[in-house]
């Protein structure tokens, strides 16, 4: 049986641009009410709200530094009071760093693990009571192509470690929350149309991924009632 998205409420972290924005719009198109998470206020937020409202869906926005547990806890308290429910969580927030290993600082190490792994755990931890209270729900964690491959990549070490950690977190929560009908999956994009570097010659399918295509994969995974603990690569064969 397909999971009906109409009338559900979804929180997308880092929803004002790129992958997060594409998923936000796709969910609204499916009839979801949406919660926009952002770090800083910008004109884009009000523009997004108007766009969602024109589709006939409810929309809220909350600001929080997701590397700060207290700020995450506060955001979810506000969601519980103001929105009153949560059915879907998309953990999209996460910084990327490519640097020679000998130049990597301890500050950068903590920043990358904080923005990727810790933020995903905090949001999952504080979202879970709301998801359970609604009779179940869906969590999608965003990775990167080749997440989980145990191949040393010194220039992106903290990023690689953080995303591999999210994969383990995905599987653990999927196993633990199946009894509560909370399905947890990971989707890992490769080189996208908005990526800074576009090494298309290294992609077997010969092109970058489109944000709309990725959002469609997210939607289909959320709709499934029998997919959980799965890692889906959306990468055109990149990094196989």
What does it look like?
- With 240 residues, the protein is α/β, with parallel strands linked by helices.
- 42% of the residues lie in helices and 15% in strands.
- It has a 7-stranded parallel sheet with strand order 3-2-1-4-5-6-7, with helices on both faces.
- Helix 3 (69-82) runs parallel beside helix 4.
- The two termini are 32 Å apart.
Short description:
With about 240 residues, this protein is of the alpha/beta class. It has helices at about 20-30, 45-55, 70-80, 105-135, 155-175, 210-225; strands at about 10, 35-40, 60-65, 90, 135-140, 180-190, 230-235. It has a single domain, classed as Rossmann fold.
Helix content: 40-55%
CATH architecture: 3-Layer(aba) Sandwich
The residue-averaged pLDDT reads 96
CATH topology: Rossmann fold
What features would you highlight for this structure?
240 residues; alpha/beta; Rossmann fold; 15% strand
Write the layout of secondary structure elements.
Elements: E1 9-12, H1 18-29, E2 33-38, H2 43-54, E3 59-63, H3 69-82, E4 88-91, H4 106-133, E5 137-142, H5 157-177, E6 182-189, H6 211-223, E7 231-234
Parallel strand pairs: 1-2, 1-4, 2-3, 4-5, 5-6, 6-7
Helix pairs in contact: 1-6, 3-4, 4-5
């Amino acid at each position: 049986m397909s999971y009906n998205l109409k009338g559900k409420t979804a929180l997308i972290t880092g929803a004002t641009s790129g992958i997060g924005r594409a998923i936000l719009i796709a969910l609204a198109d499916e009839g979801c009410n949406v919660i926009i998470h952002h770090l800083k206020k910008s004109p884009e937020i009000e523009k997004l709200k108007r766009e969602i409202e024109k589709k006939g869906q409810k929309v809220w926005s909350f600001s929080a530094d997701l590397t700060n547990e207290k700020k995450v806890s506060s955001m979810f308290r506000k969601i519980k009071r103001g929105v009153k429910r949560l059915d879907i969580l998309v953990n999209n927030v996460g910084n990327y760093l490519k640097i020679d290993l000998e130049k990597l600082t301890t500050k950068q190490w903590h920043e990358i693990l904080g923005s990727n792994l810790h933020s995903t755990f905090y949001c999952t931890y504080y979202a879970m009571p709301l998801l359970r209270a609604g009779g179940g729900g869906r969590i999608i964690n965003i990775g990167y192509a080749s997440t989980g491959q145990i191949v040393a990549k010194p220039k992106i070490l903290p990023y690689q470690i953080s995303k591999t950690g999210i994969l383990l977190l995905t599987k653990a929560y999927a196993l633990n929350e199946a009894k509560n009908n909370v399905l947890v999956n990971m989707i890992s994009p490769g080189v996208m149309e908005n990526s800074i570097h576009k090494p298309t010659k290294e992609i077997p399918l010969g092109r970058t991924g489109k944000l709309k295509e990725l959002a469609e994969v997210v939607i289909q995974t959320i709709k499934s009632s029998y997919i959980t603990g799965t890692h889906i690569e959306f990468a055109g064969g990149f990094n196989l």
